[in-house]
Amino acid sequence: MTVPNRARKNLWIGIVLALSGAGLVGCAHITAGTRVTAVEVPLKKPDALPYKEGVLTLAGAQVPVEVTRSERGDKIEFVLRSHGEVIDTERYRFDRSSFYLQSMASETYRPEIPLLRYPVSTISMDDWSGKVVADGKTFPASAKISATSEPLNVAGGPYDSVRVAVELAIDTGGARRVSRSLQFWFVDGKGIVRREAGSYSTREPR
Q1: What is the pTM of this model?
Q2: What is the pLDDT of residue 78?
Q3: Quick check: 17 and 31 in contact, CB under 8 A?
Q4: Among 31-35, 144-148, 186-190, which is the least confidently predicted range?
Q5: Is residue 178 within 8 Å of 169, Cβ to Cβ?
């Protein structure tokens, strides 16, 4: 179901911040590095297209890309193309309660991972458990999700951002789980300005 425009404009995402243990709720200037657990932060249009031209860094190699956005019902898709060829596709879902990651960097997450939850609650984010699908294989996985206010210095910036980190632990059948960090920098009114999938895939503006 498509979220009404009015709901999008008036949306206050409940990202919860801890200010040295203070239990404050409301708009506030958040010091960089503050952990999200007790303060409401306004963050409009998390599903917005932040820019049409970006850079995708793949295993250290920078590839200029064009970014397009499409919306179908409650699903949002960002397609990254270089010289007309699709390099990557990011898929998200947006409803009245959360903003979710469905897939990116050739991986699909089942169930989808909640990156943001709203309205405000007394806890920041739920832990996630499910499966990661990659290269035709399915692996059990779990994740810890946290959010931190952070200055973001990229082309077109600097910005005040909220960085959401998803610390994945993937069971590939070996003696130890494989760890990987997914990170998303949300800017109020602009959406995801920067994102990282481990150390091998990063999207940012150019």
Answers
A1: 0.79
A2: 97
A3: no
A4: 31-35
A5: yes
